[in-house]
Write a structure and sequence with these properties.
- This protein is of the alpha/beta class and 218 residues long.
- It has a single domain, classed as Rossmann fold, CATH 3.40.50.720.
- It is 38% helix and 20% strand.
- The chain is built from 10 helices and 10 strands.
- It has an 8-stranded mixed sheet, sandwiched between helices. The chain has a two-stranded antiparallel sheet with strand order 6-7.
- Helix 3 crosses helix 4.
- The chain is globular.
- The mean pLDDT is 97.
- The chain binds NADP nicotinamide-adenine-dinucleotide phosphate.
- The site of NADP nicotinamide-adenine-dinucleotide phosphate has 23 residues, from helix 1 and helix 4.
């Protein structure tokens, strides 16, 4: 499959490397055509890895991933172009983290809205699926970093889009039964709001190889 990634940070490059290793073609999109992180990544990724702008990545992808900072995701997707994203599945991995100069991290939006919902509202012809935002980038593509069965969450309005994202997660190594469908895109609020807890856990254990695991009564 051809996959466009909006963003060039750690998440974008980790997902891109895994996707190429699985035989997908990937274009990493950046604000500028000569973004060093993207061009270096594409150079070492081989013939299936490409670098371009946000519009290039949106054009290229049959499926598109938003891997930008949540506070700028709408801005980045506007640059990518609503027409280029129309009809496509957009996997939104972002979190609405706001970093204060004193190190405090807060969320915006929070409680009554989410980045996932903002994107779906502004891009109604795009099939947004919130996924993968509740765990670290290395763990996204290598669930075995944490022992045993542990869970992922998806949320979105379009069942077929969620089914395609489940398939992709399966390719990453996440069995279907651990992927919890929380319902419509408003459920993105709950997964984005796990972030303060996740950050506290990271400080507590001193690394990022941990995840949520639910045992559900039959
Ligand atoms: N790091 C993790 O392990 C992790 C785990 C789960 C979820 N997430 C979420 O995944 C997303 C990506 O995280 P990350 O750590 O890889 O990268 P990040 O540093 O949060 O975001 C980097 C991307 O944001 C873009 N960006 C920054 N300012 C912008 C602006 N004003 N307009 C348009 N685009 C702008 C950058 O564009 P350029 O390429 O043009 O520079 C870059 O591609 C975030 O929302 C994060 O919360 C991260």
């Amino acid at each position: 499959m051809r996959i466009g990634i909006i963003g060039t940070g750690a998440v974008a490059r980790t997902l891109a490397a895994k996707l190429v290793s699985l035989g997908h073609q990937v274009t990493l999109g950046s604000r500028s055509r000569d973004n060093a992180a993207a061009t270096e990544w594409a150079h070492q990724a081989g013939p299936y890895g490409h670098a371009g702008t946000y519009p290039d990545a949106a054009d290229f992808g049959e499926l598109v991933i938003n891997a930008t900072a949540g506070t700028v995701s709408l801005q980045a997707l506007r640059l990518a172009g609503a027409d280029r994203l129309a009809g496509k599945v957009l996997v939104d991995v972002s979190n609405p983290l706001v970093f204060a100069p004193d190190g405090e991290v807060t969320l915006d939006p929070v409680n009554s809205d989410s980045i996932g919902e903002q994107i779906q509202r502004e891009f109604p012809d795009t099939r947004v699926v919130k996924a993968l935002n509740t765990l670290s980038a290395p763990l996204m593509v290598d669930p075995g970093r944490v022992p045993g069965a542990h869970n992922l969450f998806i949320a979105g309005e379009d069942p077929e889009a969620k089914a395609r994202v489940r398939e992709l997660l399966g390719e990453f190594g996440w069995p279907a039964e651990v992927v919890v469908d929380l319902g419509g895109i408003s459920a993105a609020r709950s997964t984005e709001m796990l972030m303060p807890f996740w950050l506290n856990m990271m400080r507590h254990v001193g690394h990022t190889d941990f995840n949520y695991s639910f045992k559900i009564a039959e």
